[in-house]
């Protein structure tokens, strides 16, 4: 059974206690650090009245990155599928010509 860890992450001046699997710790700590960095960037770039607004912008930024990666992956997969289809057709043509 996986070892459980109790950790505390600080995000936007709030501490969040979590119980996690040991293998998740590094990813969660990096994510919290990235959120903190993004909060500082938004606060420096825009006049922000409320942490809620900054956190909403962080969530939007991260969600849009995930969606864009999904879109990019789909486009790459379509491109690869098309190339494989063309290659398969070339191989089929070659094999047919060799039988004749």
From TrEMBL:
Superkingdom, taxonomy of origin: Bacteria
Single GO BP term: cell division
Keywords: Cell cycle, Cell division
Pfam families named among the record's database cross-references: ZapA
Protein name, as recorded: Cell division protein ZapA
Source organism of this protein record: Allotamlana fucoidanivorans
């Amino acid at each position: 059974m996986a070892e459980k860890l109790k950790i505390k992450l600080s995000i936007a001046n709030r501490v969040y206690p979590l119980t996690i699997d040991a293998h998740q710790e590094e990813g969660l700590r990096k994510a919290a650090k990235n959120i903190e960095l993004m909060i500082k960037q938004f606060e420096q770039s825009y006049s922000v009245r409320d942490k809620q607004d900054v956190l909403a912008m962080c969530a939007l930024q991260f969600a849009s990155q995930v969606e864009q990666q999904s879109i990019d992956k789909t486009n790459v997969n379509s491109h690869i599928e098309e190339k494989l289809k063309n290659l398969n057709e070339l191989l089929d043509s070659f094999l047919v010509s060799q039988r004749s």
